[in-house]
Design goal:
- By secondary structure, the protein is mostly helical.
- The protein has one domain: Four Helix Bundle (Hemerythrin (Met), subunit A) (Up-down Bundle), CATH 1.20.120.50.
- Helix content is 78%, strand content 0%.
- Helix 1 (13-34) runs antiparallel to helix 2.
- The longest helix has 28 residues, at 42-69.
- The protein is elongated, with a radius of gyration of 15 Å.
- The mean pLDDT is 92.
- Keywords: Iron, Metal-binding, Oxygen transport, Transport.
- Belongs to the hemerythrin family.
- Monomer.
- This is Bacteriohemerythrin.
Length: 129
């Protein structure tokens, strides 16, 4: 569903690799959505959400440490975007998720993919410009 493209490259190897991992997690969710062999996907969805949340927190901390190390002037506003993303993931209603799993995966995927693309191409690109 979401593929790494060269336009996403910041030229900061550790951050680029971490971004690729976020793409991989989004693709896990996409693969689960397309898998018709699982009737009940709830446990797998919860596991993907946990992985996404945990890895995102790790990545955001790493990215923020990098920005501090270079004296990046927009660190605070960048951090607000990171916090908003984590809050969105933490606010997912697991009861709603269980009611219509495929619809919820699709809604989550749309949010994550849009956010990743906009954040990397917009906010993250400013770090290296």
């Amino acid at each position: 569903m979401i593929k790494w493209r060269e336009e996403f490259r910041l030229g900061i190897e550790t951050i680029d690799e971490q971004h690729k991992k976020l793409f991989a997690i989004a693709n896990e969710a996409y693969d689960l959505l397309k898998n018709d062999f699982y009737i009940d996907k709830y446990d797998r969805i919860v596991a993907i959400l946990k992985e996404l949340r945990d890895y995102t927190i790790y990545h955001f901390n790493s990215e923020e440490d990098y920005m501090k190390s270079i004296g990046y002037k927009k660190l605070l506003s960048h951090k607000v975007e990171h916090n908003d993303f984590v809050e969105k993931i933490n606010s997912i209603d697991l009861d709603k998720l269980d009611e219509n799993q495929d619809e919820y995966i699709l809604e989550l995927l749309n949010f994550v993919v849009d956010w990743i693309e906009q954040h990397i191409l917009g906010t993250d690109k400013q770090i290296v410009s």
